[in-house]
Amino acid sequence: MTRMLNCLVSVLAIVISGGSPSEAAPAVQTKDNKGLQLFETKIEPVLVKYCYECHSRKGDSVEGGLELDSPSGMMRGGDTGPMLKPHDLEHSSLIQMLKHQGDVSGMPPEKKLSDKVIAAFEEWIRLGCPDSRKEVGPTLKEQRYQAAQKHWAFVPPKTVKLPVVEQTGWPRNPIIDGFVLSAMEQQGLKPVQDANRLTLVRRVYFDLIGLPPSVTEVDAFLNDKSPDALAKLIDKLLASPRFGERWGRH
Helix H segments across 188-249? Predict the structure, then answer.
């Protein structure tokens, strides 16, 4: 008798609560499966055949900003805004595109799809636009573009304060030399003494044309006492064919 009462209480509890979770789940799962099956058998093949060539991130370009090769791209829409509203045919402009109706561009532009295919898209929208595809990550081209944007050449210039240095008399170019000297001082380093003019002329020749200066060229520089003697020598070597010959090898 006690066992029968316990069974009756359990049955009443299930009825009052609307049934057990294990009984309610299959109905929802069946609906989801129907929508996903429709997408995989009727919708996705059409997208692959007619749409991906112009509206896929794997292509050379994405026309109208409309990416149809990912769930988020489908829902986001293109430059004119979203074209899908789950469960709402009236506000899903994709159907007008497929039917080549209204003031939207017909898709595909060459030829309208069959009424049977369009009906499948309508049913898919009624079911909530279920999509079994995984999100598409950035393509190799996009990854390289994103990495390139971090290169210093693409970073907008900023106005920065000049660093405070101890050896205020050393920088000749306050902007470049100031930052170099500041970094050196932070590491406990000091700049070496300036090279003498003989060493300097040899360095300039080797750096720019890869050849040592002749005795005549050395004497000409040593005897030039003008403040811009070094600048004139550099300009002369930059204009020399030997400068192009040296760096044209690289």
Answer: 197-209, 215-222, 229-238, 241-247
Residue showing tokens 């020598």: 233
Clarify whether residues 134 and 208 are in a common domain. Answer: no
Mark whether 26 and 125 lie in a shared domain: yes
Tokens coding 6: 């316990």
**What's the Cα-to-Cα distance from 237 to each of 177, 207, 240, rounded to whole Å?**
24, 10, 5
Q: How many distinct structural domains can be found in the chain? A: 2
Write out the residue range of the structural domain in which residue 215 sits. 197-247
How large is the angle between the packed helices 115-126 and 21-38, nearest 10 degrees? 150
- Residue 5 corresponds to which amino acid? L
Structure tokens at 86: 């789950």
Cα–Cα distance for residue pair 18/250, rounded to 1 Å = 80
Its pTM stands at 0.46
Q: How far apart are CA 211 and CA 16, in angstroms?
A: 98
Cross-strand pairs, 78? 81
Convert the pLDDT of each residue in 13-44 to its tens digit.
444 444 443 333 333 334 578 999 999 999 99
Same domain, 28 and 136: yes
Q: How far apart are CA 57 and CA 69, in angstroms?
A: 7
Same domain, 41 and 133: yes
CA distance 245 to 67: 50
The pLDDT value recorded for residue 119 is: 95
As a whole number of angstroms, the distance between CA 59 and CA 53 comes to 6
**pLDDT tens digits, residue range 174-207?**
789 999 999 999 999 999 888 999 999 999 999 9
138 and 222 together in one domain: no
Q: How far apart are CA 119 and CA 48, in angstroms?
A: 18
